[in-house]
Amino acid sequence: xxxxxxxRDTEKITIGICSPGHVSTPFMTAxxxxxxxxxxxxxxxxxxxxxxxxxxxxxxxxxxxxxxxDDWLLMIDTDEVLTxxxxxxxVAAADAKSRQIISGVVHGAxxxxxxxxxxxxxxxxxxxxxxxxxxxxxxxxxxxxEIDAAGTxxxxxxRRVLERFRAEADPVHQGKDWGFxxxxxxxxxxxxxxxxxxxxxxxxxxxxxxxxxxQLTHERRYWLxxxxxxxxxxxxxxxxxxxxxxxxxxxxx
Length: 253
Fold this sequence. Notes:
By secondary structure, the protein is an alpha+beta fold. The protein has one domain: Spore Coat Polysaccharide Biosynthesis Protein SpsA, Chain A (Alpha-Beta Complex). The chain contains six helices and 14 strands. The protein has helices at about 25-35, 55-65, 85-95, 160-170, 195-205, 225-235; strands at about 15-20, 40-50, 70-75, 80, 100-110, 120, 125, 135, 145, 150, 155-160, 185, 190, 210-220. The strands form three sheets. Strands 1, 2, 3, 4, 5, 6, 9, 11 and 14 form a nine-stranded mixed β-sheet that branches. Strands 8-7-10 form a three-stranded antiparallel β-sheet. Strand 7 and strand 8 (about 135) form a beta hairpin. It is globular. The protein starts with 12 loop residues before the first strand and ends in a 20-residue tail after the last helix.
């Protein structure tokens, strides 16, 4: 599916992040690069805390509605890196009337029993015949595709969507601040706040989109072991391993 640049130059975008109080250099460098080069950026919301992530995500949305007049909220997780080109593509594909929710592609790391590496899984999802969500592994490059849910690693949402969420919130328990994101069981499975946000948005009549040309790198950490070393050696000659004649004396280093 092709796309046109539908977001007007006058529309402003707030970036919202939540963190434990510190972020990585690659993430912040990418944000600064975008801020220096893109005139559509408006406000920047940064909240820190620990524990339930949905609490911070709710506060980001509430702050955006109450403290800014910007048109769009771009939520980015602080373990992702969004390039200037990726930002431009999201902006070009977004539209206040037809594409109010659009995601980049972030790969999650799903543990596989018995495997030494996690499985990279695109965090864009469609509903299966049974109603459950499955990850979209096959897609055309650099296209805008319709999906049913996405993670919040890189999610651009129009203001009117969040205003609808606020209008639909339980006035007693959620009030105006806590009706955007929540974790809860659904159909016998625990559903995270990001996927439930999308499912609720779809129930309100909105469509969810993903731009497959907006690929974000995702910082992951894991423990290296002997098994990783052996697996690497199946395909590569380990560094510093060479015949005696090529060895370098490093005793003085």
